[in-house]
Design brief:
- By secondary structure, the protein is α/β, with parallel strands linked by helices.
- The chain folds into two domains: 4-142, NAD(P)-binding Rossmann-like Domain (Rossmann fold, 3-Layer(aba) Sandwich); 145-303, Alpha-Beta Complex (L-2-Hydroxyisocaproate Dehydrogenase, Chain A, domain 2).
- The chain has helices at 12-23, 38-53, 92-109, 122-133, 145-160, 199-210, 212-220, 227-241, 286-304; strands spanning 4-8, 28-32, 59-62, 73-76, 114-117, 140-142, 167-168, 171-172, 180-181, 187-188, 191-192, 246-255, 261-272, 275-279.
- The strands form four sheets. A six-stranded parallel sheet has the order 3-2-1-4-5-6. The chain has a three-stranded antiparallel sheet with strand order 7-10-11, with helices on one face.
- The longest helix is centred in the last third of the chain and has 19 residues, at 286-304.
- The mean pLDDT is 97.
- The structure holds adenosine-5-diphosphoribose.
- The site of adenosine-5-diphosphoribose has 29 residues, from helix 1 and helix 3.
């Protein structure tokens, strides 16, 4: 039997997710949104292209939570996206109310699902989902570090003129301006980038990575990045659905790791059929730890604003 993947939010990211999941034959897709016609229209469009992708996966759109029943995986993009001049944190009040209703719907209709949250501000939204749903921490994970790391990888590959495939990167902490790229843990085919690029160039790439979401928002003007976030979540979805045991930077609920408890923070973890199966605690030097602590404090103050 094919897997069932429910997508909550049929906007820009939801649309790319539906297409990629169906055309990669990861499972049947149910696209949910509160706007009537939007998920149905996107689903029909994708379904009609499926023969070209050689996919028999079903794609349907709905405005009823009952239709997500039995989902193995739920990916949440419901909520407002940024416009120029806004930070991710500016979305908190509106998206908090949306996330509360989504968590209640998923809890009722897909209580056994794994959940990937994409809605921003990410660390606060994934926390809200976990608190409202009561799902165990291994089944609720946030997409942030994969996207931040892929942006860093892109910039390094451009700078060195090498394949993006050979660049690995690690960006931890909160998914905001305080995120922490860790150049010491980035490499090109195993060669630390600190041996290939100057400190100034690495600092430039780190800053561009931290502001990369805003750079896209300022160009698009009407919304935020949606292709790279969708593909980042697909990487996580594949890890869970195919039990790949990928080591990816994800927003995980910490209970003592890195000296943090009760918060979602971006850390390296093992993603497989059990969801977040393990968190890796890596060594940081004093400067890296200072940036990581500042990022945690930012996440803590954002999370403290959540009234459930
Ligand atoms: N339940 C389900 N869907 C909802 C709800 C809700 N309560 N409220 C809003 N939505 C839907 C909207 O109707 C819209 O179709 O969420 C969708 C969001 O789509 P876009 O506005 O296109 O936003 P997108 O670019 O997909 O980003 C979604 O992910 O990266 C984050 O910051 C981004 O928070 C934003 C989210």
């Amino acid at each position: 039997m094919r897997r069932k993947i429910a997508l909550i939010g049929a906007g820009n990211i939801g649309g790319v997710l539906a297409e990629q999941i169906a055309y990669r034959r990861l499972g049947d897709v149910v696209l949910f949104d509160v706007v009537e016609g939007l998920p149905q229209g996107k689903a029909l469009d994708i379904a009609e292209g499926a023969p070209l992708a050689g996919s028999d996966c079903r794609v349907t759109g709905t405005n009823a939570y009952q239709d997500i029943a039995g989902a193995d995986l739920v990916i949440i993009t419901a909520g407002l996206a940024r416009k120029p001049g806004m930070s991710r944190d500016d979305l908190l009040a509106k998206n908090l109310e949306i996330m509360k209703s989504v968590a209640a719907g998923v809890k009722q209709h897909a209580p056994k699902a794994h959940v990937i949250v994409i809605s921003n501000p990410l660390d606060a939204m994934v926390y809200t989902f976990k608190q409202i749903s009561g799902f165990p921490k291994n089944r609720v994970v946030g997409m942030a570090g994969v996207l931040d790391s892929t942006r860093f990888r892109t910039f390094v590959a451009w700078e060195l003129g090498v394949s993006v495939k050979d660049v690995t990167a690690l960006v931890l902490g909160g998914h905001g301006d305080t995120m922490v790229p860790l150049p010491r843990y980035c490499s090109v085919a195993g060669i630390p980038i600190t041996r290939l690029l100057s400190a100034e160039k690495i600092a430039e790439i780190s800053t561009r990575t931290q502001n990369a979401g805003g750079e896209v928002v300022n160009l698009l003007k009407t919304g935020s990045a949606f292709v790279s976030p969708a593909h980042s979540a697909i990487e996580m979805a594949e890890a869970i659905l195919l039990d790949e045991k990928r080591v990816l930077a994800c927003a995980c609920f910490l209970e003592g790791e890195y000296g943090v408890s009760g918060l979602y923070v971006g850390v390296p973890c093992v993603l497989g059929a059990g969801g977040v199966e393990k968190v890796f605690e890596i060594e940081m030097d004093a400067a890296e730890r200072k940036l990581f602590d500042a990022s945690i404090e930012h996440v803590r103050s954002l999370t403290a604003q959540i009234k459930l």
